[in-house]
Amino acid sequence: MKKMSMTAPEEAVEATGYRPGTITPFGAAAADGTRWPIYADESISGRIAMGAGAPGLSLFVDSATLFAAYDVVTADITRSPQRA
Questions:
Q1: Across-strand partners of 29?
Q2: CB 61 within 8 Å of CB 50
Q3: Which of 2, 39, 41, 69 has its CA 20 to 30 A from that of 25?
Q4: Nearest-angstrom CA–CA distance, 22 and 78
């Protein structure tokens, strides 16, 4: 997880066809049909909201159900705050 980073908005649109904020893991696949891996921070739990494919739309789901259905990889992927 050390080398993971957020993509630039233009790259997200090119890769998925969706703008940041609307990207959804449902149907996320490479051109050859290979499903992309989905990563989430291990602190995520309970009911969550996620992009639903269009601006202004959100989908509310139980995180455990979503993670199980899409084989989501969970880990501590958040960046710790910098200390002064």
A1: 35
A2: yes
A3: 2
A4: 21
Helix, strand, or coil (residue 66)? helix
The string of DSSP codes covering 33-50 is SPBPP-EEETT--SEEEE
Helix (H, G, I), strand (E, B) or coil at 25: coil
Dist. CA 46–CA 66, nearest whole Å = 10
- Taking only the tens place, the pLDDT of each residue in 19-67 is 887 777 766 777 677 888 888 899 999 999 887 878 888 889 999 999 9
Residue 59 is classified by DSSP as E
Note the pTM of the prediction, 2 decimals. 0.64
Residue reference for tokens 């494919």: 53
Greatest distance between any 2 Cα atoms in the chain: 47
Torsion of CA 62, 7, 29, 71, to 10 degrees: -40
